[in-house]
């Protein structure tokens, strides 16, 4: 297997995708692009949920222009035609685990019943996001709806880092353990050698 194929295999594994379902809210995780807000807007306009929420201030993979992610996301959603009245946000988190821990209490405080939540993140972050939220709130159904973002070969180191985080954070008890299939492990080895 060559490097490009290995990247694709790992990317496809990390991009955990469920069929969208009607839910109580769409929750957008912090990231460095507008692709999650674009996906959330698409889901909202298709009638999958009546509200969109986000709590990320900015962390490792947030915007680099010194703007808080919540402000960045809010302005983009408004530009995409999402009514301000359907959005709830607060500066509560700096990373995925914090987002998972604060999201549900925040939603309840905002009078949103979070029995079923559509989770939207960048594809490369989606599996870890879902596994973290599902571990923190096992009685809530989280539906994994990754952003529609093209595969980017320049993110090889991020692909490897995400696999490492899945294992490290599962060992710490922060997310549901994920089985990494043999073909993904083989692809990981190809990418590690190419670094």
In a few lines, what is going on in this structure?
The chain is an alpha/beta fold and 195 residues long. The chain has helices at 3-14, 35-45, 69-79, 96-109, 123-136, 156-171, 182-194, and strands at 25-28, 52-56, 87-93, 116-120, 141-144.
Mean of all residue-level pLDDT scores: 92
- Beta-strand level of the residues, as a percent range? 5-15%
The helix count comes to 7
Broad shape: globular
Distance between the termini: 15 Å
Rg from Cα: 16 Å
User: Major beta sheet, specifics?
Assistant: 5 strands, parallel
Total strand segments: 5
Arrangement of strands in the largest sheet: 3-2-1-4-5
Structural class based on helices, strands and sheet pairing: alpha/beta
Q: What is the element string, with H for helices and E for strands?
A: HEHEHEHEHEHH
Task: Detail the poorly predicted runs.
Answer: 60-65
Helix content estimate: 40-55%
Helix/strand layout:
Blueprint: H1 3-14, E1 25-28, H2 35-45, E2 52-56, H3 69-79, E3 87-93, H4 96-109, E4 116-120, H5 123-136, E5 141-144, H6 156-171, H7 182-194
Parallel strand pairs: 1-2, 1-4, 2-3, 4-5
Helix pairs in contact: 1-5, 1-6, 1-7, 4-5, 5-6
Description:
The protein is of the alpha/beta class. The chain has seven helices and five strands. The protein has helices at residues 3-14, 35-45, 69-79, 96-109, 123-136, 156-171, 182-194; strands spanning 25-28, 52-56, 87-93, 116-120, 141-144. α1 (3-14) packs across α6, α1 packs across α7 and α4 crosses α5.
């Amino acid at each position: 297997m060559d490097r490009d194929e290995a990247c694709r295999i790992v990317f496809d594994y990390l991009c955990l995708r469920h069929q969208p379902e009607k839910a109580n809210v769409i929750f957008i995780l912090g990231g460095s692009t507008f692709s999650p807000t674009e996906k959330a807007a698409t889901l909202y306009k298709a009638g999958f949920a009546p509200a969109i929420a986000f709590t990320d201030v900015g962390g490792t993979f947030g915007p680099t222009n010194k703007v808080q992610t919540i402000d960045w996301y809010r302005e983009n959603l408004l530009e995409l035609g999402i009514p301000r009245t359907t959005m709830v946000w607060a500066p509560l988190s700096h990373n995925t685990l914090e987002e998972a821990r604060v999201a549900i209490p925040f939603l309840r405080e905002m009078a949103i019943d979070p029995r079923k939540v559509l989770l939207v993140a960048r594809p490369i972050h989606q599996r870890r996001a879902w596994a973290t939220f599902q571990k923190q709130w096992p009685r809530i159904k989280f539906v994994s709806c990754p952003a529609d973002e093209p595969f980017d070969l320049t993110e090889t180191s991020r692909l490897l880092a995400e696999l490492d985080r899945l294992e490290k954070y599962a060992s710490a008890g922060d997310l549901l353990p994920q089985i990494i299939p043999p073909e993904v492990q083989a692809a990981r080895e190809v990418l590690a050698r190419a670094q």
